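Researcher: I'm preparing a figure for a lab meeting and need a structural model of a single chain. I don't have an experimental structure, so a prediction will have to do for now. The sequence is pasted below. Please return the structure as tokens so I can convert it later.
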Amino acid sequence: MKALFISDAHLKGVKDRQYDRIIKLFEVEQTTMDTLFILGDFFDFWFCNNGSVYPGFRRMIDKLFELRDRGVAINYFEGNHDFSLDEFFKGSGIRVFPDGAELDLDGRKIYVSHGDTIDLSNRRYLLLRRFLRSRVFYLVQNALPSVLLWQIARLSSRMSKDHLAKPPEGLTAAMREFSMAKFREGYDAVILGHCHQPVLEQYMVGGRKRTFGISGDWEDKCSYIQYVDGVFHHSVLQSN
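Model: Understood. Here is the structure written out token by token.
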């Protein structure tokens, strides 16, 4: 069993260096990967207008569909930049999770999430998050012309960045504390995104090895987490 966990590419268009890097990773892994977990903020913004998405994202979406057709199970967890995904992906065979979820991985109980709701102290961000996901906002944005919509999407992306919960170190600590609580509930692993800091730590809790991981990002580090036959690894895509 081989699974990849990737997040925070913040793709903005086909000219992004991240596009070629991620396509390269997928092409290397597509014959051996069983499951792909996208942990949010894969795209820097996302709005679907009457079934249409930002044209600059089409190449990556087609690659995801190609992976699906090759038999890769794809689980997409919404982030604070890419949400309301189900309108586009519903019925495509790509599973969309608006929040964190409990999953089974080789008989292991794991919790997977983007991680943007873990810091409950940042009420301003949580209110903004709730508004952007509200039915009212959805109806308003769906009535706008696509060109204007994508301009608003970029503004929404910048607003979301301005409302990050904590500096990376503080957010990592909050995520670690959250994960320890999940371990005490019986989870074997907690894998998150959001704070852009690659983390992979092992703990013994209740006599069992537990794993806390943050996938990192693709804007600077090109980092991701691999799970291969029961073992988690942190990996970095090597440049040519």
